[in-house]
Design brief:
It comes from Linnemannia gamsii. The chain is an alpha/beta fold and 660 residues long. The chain is built from 24 helices and seven strands.
């Protein structure tokens, strides 16, 4: 008789034993469980089963016996000890497993991590001597929790900075790219530099068709042979695995100008040990970061542009705005614009209430939850329009491509409900404006994933207008500076290098590109996870000496165990839940209220802001004029943009530039 407590995969149940350490129990089962023939498993167990080596149990037992014979034969135990440590396994558990011969001891793990940090330090020093590279850094906030609360002993946050060196693939036969175009080859510096040109408009229409058709195809029954309209690549980066070197964390607050200067000095003088001769050539280094980091670095350059020393003048620093923080701000701009009120159907506020989404409001925006809901609403509206056009006789037997073209024409540029056969109500116009805004947001994410810097360059002018229209002034002005460089000031080689620095491909796979600052955020998340798992015993010194420089090693070991042993990851890996029910509820609500549908009536709310039109008015009215006032110089192309600003300020104020 089969054991009633056995699972589908033949492993006895351990109810009551694994409540406090579910992942550890699951892991040990994966390591010590012999393979069960597939034919002996239930269908449910077959679906859940992961690929694993048939000899994993025998190899584990052999490693244990060798370790008991000689503790110098501990390759398996070392890797396992590091793996358990980086997943937050407590010290006492590691000591118990060490007694069983499954792991090295806790003190040996710490010693091994310090050795790995030294090795990582030597490798990054060698890499920066032989290759071009750039930096990305971001603040990291670590929660210091106190279990016994007192008035003078409460939970606090420690602020620091985490950084990563990224190697630039380069051809040694090619000379260093020139930064600035000759004056005679530059385009006319007028307002047209910052607005979409014909190529941008054509590209947006094409990618809009692709994203709309992709949404329609997702709604078709399984087995459908209809495919979405493909996107033609514009300028994709060469597919290769990015070489990255995480650096030790620094207990330096980079939210201030002085903090950014301290971070640069710590990285160059201590972290990378760059000699003064390295800056004398001169060298050029991208420093990637969010808008605040870029703003602080530009201010530093302005105040130091006349310093005769190449290192202290910071002429080698080129701050570059990064795309993940831009995505988050664009997401927030669209959310606030279309949020509206719960009283009016069709607004994001009413949809969030309809789907019972908690924590989504107009005060504090949670990026992942907001991004998910925006994409759900996009699919619901596009698929509802597809159903409307198929059912209401705009044309007989419309295929997906024909419907896609009609929807794209109605929402890609100036919203036109009448083109769809819908009444020109405020709710319908607001719905099409939402589709138009979200297409830009979706395209930015898709272009990043594809590693297509050409598509990113095409979509930037639309984002500039939307940022100005939504009142996101800081990012709007920084995007003007970026467009000015890409379209007027920089050579093609330098512009390509600037855009390339915004993307990395940690795994070297097609479709595996991500924003550079997103990779740094992932590193920060792993550091904070280990920090929180270790509790009060963790310190900044320990993070520097043992953890932060080994993040890539921890990731590789985790993937190895998942692949070789078949252990399920201790994460959902952002697994997307089914959205079909949410989409159906939104569509039923729209149909009953007459939104993007002919029947039904709803109370018409106020019109939402047309982000592009409002942004265009602000740019023409004042923003572009102020930008030109601050970013043109009497010396032509003798200086960089931020340095030109410093020179103008010097002339206007008739005083010496202050040097820190």
């Amino acid at each position: 008789m089969a054991d009633s407590n056995a699972h589908d995969d033949g492993v006895p149940s351990t109810k009551g034993k694994n409540k406090g350490a579910k992942y550890l129990m699951r892991f040990l089962k994966g390591v010590l469980k012999e393979d069960v023939p597939v034919e002996n498993l239930t269908k449910r167990a077959q679906r859940r089963r992961r690929a694993r080596k048939p000899s994993s149990v025998r190899g584990c037992i052999s490693a244990m016996l060798l370790f008991m014979t000689s503790q110098k034969t501990n390759a398996f135990q070392t890797v396992l000890g590091i793996f358990l440590h980086c997943t937050g396994c407590p010290r006492r558990v590691l000591e118990v497993l060490s007694g069983f011969g499954l792991s090295i001891s806790y003190s040996q793990v710490l010693s091994c991590l310090k050795s790995l940090t030294k090795d990582a330090y030597m490798r990054v020093l060698q890499a920066v001597k032989e290759n071009d590279f750039y930096l990305v850094y971001d603040n990291i906030n670590l929660a210091i929790k106190h279990h016994h609360q007192r008035s003078n002993n409460r939970d606090t946050f420690d602020n620091g900075t985490a950084a990563t060196v990224i190697i630039i693939p380069s051809d040694k036969n090619k000379p260093e790219p020139t930064i600035f175009c000759p004056v005679e080859e530059r385009s006319v510096a007028d307002a047209n530099l910052f607005f979409p040109n014909d190529g941008d408009l054509e590209n947006l229409f094409n990618v809009c068709q692709s994203h709309v058709s992709d949404s329609i195809v997702r709604s078709l029954p399984e087995g459908s042979t209809t495919f979405a309209i493909p996107i033609v690549p514009v300028e994709q980066l060469d597919l290769a695995k990015s070489t990255v070197f995480p650096l030790p964390v620094m207990k330096l607050d980079e939210s201030t100008i002085a903090g950014n200067l301290s971070v640069l000095q710590r990285i160059t003088e201590v972290g990378l040990n760059l000699p003064k001769s390295w800056f004398a050539n001169p060298k050029n280094m991208f420093v990637a970061g969010d808008q605040m980091t870029v703003s602080r670095l530009l201010t530093l350059k302005v105040h130091r542009c006349f310093d005769p020393d190449p290192y202290h003048s910071l002429s080698w620093v080129h701050p570059v705005l990064q795309l993940f923080h831009l995505q988050m701000n664009l997401c927030g701009t669209i959310w606030r614009t279309h949020y509206g009120s719960k009283e009016f159907p069709g607004t994001l506020a009413s949809i969030a209430c309809l789907l019972n989404r908690k924590g989504l409001n107009n005060d504090k925006i949670v990026f992942h939850a907001t991004d998910e809901l925006l994409r759900i609403v996009f699919d619901a509206k596009v698929q509802l329009l597809y159903q409307f056009l198929r059912d209401h006789g705009v044309a007989d037997r419309l295929d997906v491509q024909s419907v896609t073209e009609i929807i794209t024409k109605s929402c890609c540029f100036q919203p036109s409900p009448s083109l769809l056969g819908l009444p020109c109500t405020t709710a319908n116009t607001n719905g099409l404006l939402f589709l138009r805004d979200l297409v830009v947001y979706i395209e930015l994410g898709a272009a990043i994933k594809a590693g297509d810097i050409g598509r990113i360059k095409h979509v930037l002018p639309f984002i500039v207008m939307m940022m100005h229209g939504g009142g996101n002034t800081n990012y709007a002005l920084e995007l003007l500076r970026l467009l000015y460089g890409l379209r007027h000031l920089w050579t093609d080689d330098w512009a390509r290098r600037v855009l390339s620095s915004m993307l990395v491909n940690p795994k070297g796979i097609d479709g595996g590109w991500m924003a550079t600052d997103m990779m740094q955020e992932n590193h920060n998340y792993l550091i904070k996870t280990i920090f929180s798992a270790k509790g009060s015993n963790m310190s900044w010194e320990y993070l520097q000496d043992s953890i932060s420089a080994n993040i890539k090693t921890f990731q590789s070991i985790s993937r190895m165990f998942e692949r070789e042993v078949g252990v399920r990851p201790n994460s959902t890996r952002h697994k997307k839940p089914s959205t079909a029910l949410d989409i159906l509820r939104i569509q039923e609500n729209f149909q009953s209220c007459g939104i993007l549908w002919t029947s039904g009536e709803c109370e018409q709310g106020p019109p939402v802001i047309d982000l592009r039109h409002a942004g265009e008015e602000k740019m023409v009215g004042s923003a572009i004029g102020r930008f030109f006032d601050n970013h043109t110089s009497l010396w032509g192309n003798a200086v960089d943009i931020e340095e030109a600003e410093g020179l103008e300020n010097d002339l206007d104020q008739n005083q010496d530039i202050k040097i820190f």
